[in-house]
Amino acid sequence: MKKNIAIIMGGYSSEYEISLKSGNVVYNALNTLDNYHVFRIHIFENKWVFVSDTETEFPIDKNDFSVIVDDEKITFDCVFNAIHGSPGEDGIMQAYLELLNIPHTSCGMYQAALTFNKRDCLSVLRPYGIKTAESYYINLGDVIDEDAIIKKVGLPCFVKANRAGSSFGISKVYKKEEFKKALEVAYKEDDEIIIESYLDGVEVSVGVISYQGEIIVLPITEIVSENDFFDYQAKYLGQSKEITPARISESDAEKVRALAKRVYEILKMTGFSRSEYIFKDGEPHLLEVNTVPGLTKASILPQQAAAAGISLEQLFQNAIEEALK
Questions:
Q1: What is the pLDDT of residues 101-141, one digit of tens each?
Q2: How many angstroms separate the CA atoms of 108 and 86, rounded?
Q3: In the chain, at which residue ranges do the beta strands (DSSP E only) sit?
């Protein structure tokens, strides 16, 4: 019997366009396989719909995550999560699907909520000896003391929306006078902000996945941005070089591989993860953990999988088979 697989894409955040691209790549890859019926499900704040190949929309019944097409009720054996940002990466969809006992390809609800909150995730990992940048936290409405911020994190520094991805809501600040604008940019994405010290060093991205029953670390990618940092334009508009494998020494590669795997295990992750590190004084410092990384052919995790000899079809099929276990 062919299994019904729902690919959820879209979402409620600024990342929805990237998510639609990721979801369609997954859809096209899984459609080449004989063992699945694949369905594109668009999840937006104003509608949840199954979108057919003719672009006809059929509403999803949220009571049991089913859809009626031509008088036939369709339920799903597994959900492939391709939603970047809320509600796919912050634990909301995971909790909903787990309540309905529907297997899904991403990590658990708690892991998603924790990793999506940069402040909380870094706070949990620091006691394990995981090195991070110096940081300062602000919530909407707090009094801004620029001198206290500069004393803690120095200049230049990064002002980031705490719960946002794809480099939305990030600014690099060089002068005290630039904080006001940077905070405005971050508050457009979230009402919580994290301000971090600038780490001057090689930036790498490390994919860790559950593959055929084992936790494996994919080849490391070095990030070389043509811009001041790895911003949205660098990530998605070709203004960066992503070099896999990274041009770092084998000892540095071994350090960051072991660290990325340890982070995955400490957090009790499942499914895909991609964590970002910057080397400072020879030691990798963790920036963040992504649990629904980009899945387009140009995205980092698929590039790493290809370097490991894993095709998109194998990568996505494995995610489903791991979830169905």
A1: 999 999 999 999 999 999 999 999 999 999 999 999 999 99
A2: 14
A3: 3-10, 36-44, 47-51, 57-61, 66-69, 72-74, 78-81, 135-139, 157-161, 170-173, 192-197, 203-211, 214-217, 221-225, 240-243, 272-280, 283-290
Q: For the whole model, what pTM was predicted?
A: 0.92
> Are 293 and 273 contacting, i.e. CB atoms less than 8 angstroms apart?
yes
Give yes or no for a contact between 291 and 111, defined as CB atoms under 8 angstroms apart.
Answer: yes
pLDDT cut 70: percent of the chain above it: 95
| For residue 293, cis peptide bond before it (omega within 30 degrees of 0) | no
DSSP single-letter state for residue 169: T
Rounded-to-integer distance, Cα 231 and Cα 37, Å: 37
- Measured CA to CA, the distance from residue 109 to residue 92 in angstroms comes to 7
Model pLDDT for residues 75-93, shown as the tens digit of each residue: 999 999 999 999 999 999 9
Distance CA 96, CA 233 (A): 33
- Whether the link from the prior residue into 219 is cis, omega within 30° of 0, is no
At residue 183, the 3 state secondary structure works out as: helix
CB atoms within 10 A of CB 282: 10
